[in-house]
Amino acid sequence: MEKMDKFTHLGKEVLTIVNSAVVIILLVVLINKDLVSVGDYIAVTMAVAIIINFSNLIEDYIRMLENLNYSVKAKQMKEQIAEKSIIKSAHGKSLLDFMNKLIYPI
Predict the structure, then answer these.
(1) 21 φψ region: left (φ > 0), alpha (ψ -120 to 50), beta (else)
(2) pLDDT over threshold 60, residue 19
């Protein structure tokens, strides 16, 4: 899984570099032909940077949601194990109840 994540990240970085290079080369050619000004070049390169940062923000949000789903599944699995546990405390609760209060205080 980690290897696949690194490969995906590498592919994303390469794609970002290639896209940025294409935009820069295209703008340099247009500047040489006096079709756009240097100010247009700066505006477009800043727009590309903002788009890249926005895509990174979306990617981080999706990764956070995925981690949250894993956390919820782990909590459910721990609760199932606690329910089936043979050893109970003196109060009739599972011995893992104190961990739930530490990890999930809400």
Answers:
(1) alpha
(2) yes
